[in-house]
Amino acid sequence: MAAPNDVQIPISKNETDGENNLDYSQRAQWLRAAVLGANDGLVSIASLMMGVGAIKKDFKVMVLTGFAGLVAGACSMAIGEFVSVYSQLDIEVAQMKREKRMKENGGNGREFEKEKLPNPIQAATASALAFTVGAIVPLLAAAFIENHRVRLGVVVAAVSLALVVFGGIGAVLGKTHVVRSCARVVVGGWMAMAITFGLTKLISSTGGWPWPSLLG
């Protein structure tokens, strides 16, 4: 019997069933590829553009460098994801064959659902598209601004906002803490851009890498 001060909120069976039937671990594969791809696109291309912007004020150089990084990064993400997921697929298919042989020999083999097998092409496509979406943000932020300092500031602001959005989306879909997730990706993005900008500026101010002079 409930105490007089207790307040009981009725929860319908449909609500609990819907919550229990939702397996968030099933989202892990595509969510990981999408969120990591978008974050990588944002941070790597923004950092690349900030590094170039530290020593070059030319608008075209900065944008073309970012575009080249977008194409290279999207291809790299797609190939890496394809190889990784294909290896996982090979392992699971081999395990399916072993389980099938065990059942045929009277053993207790597990049942596998073919629909749940990893899809290398799907993972590679999602990863490349996500990277591209993320990389477009700093490119668009810099595309229409001639003033060098303003351009750098707008890139940082646009990337920061996008990191908050992508971090929040990933947290909501994965049912994790939104504020912590956003803070993690934003601080990480700031650090990457600051380190790239600072080191490139430092190397430029010292006259370049020391190795050519050592080798010569």
TrEMBL record:
Catalysed reactions listed for this entry: Fe(2+)(in) = Fe(2+)(out)
GO MF entries: iron ion sequestering activity; iron ion transmembrane transporter activity; manganese ion transmembrane transporter activity
Localization, UniProt: Vacuole membrane
Protein's membrane topology: Multi-pass membrane protein
Keyword flag rRNA-binding: no
Main location: membrane
Sequence segments annotated as region (Disordered): 1-20
BP GO terms, sorted: intracellular manganese ion homeostasis
The keyword Transmembrane helix is assigned to this record: yes
Transmembrane segments: 30-49, 61-79, 121-145, 152-173, 185-203
Role played: Vacuolar Fe(2+) uptake transporter.
UniProt name for this protein: Vacuolar iron transporter
Source species: Camellia sinensis var. sinensis (China tea)
Organism ancestry: Eukaryota, Viridiplantae, Streptophyta, Embryophyta, Tracheophyta
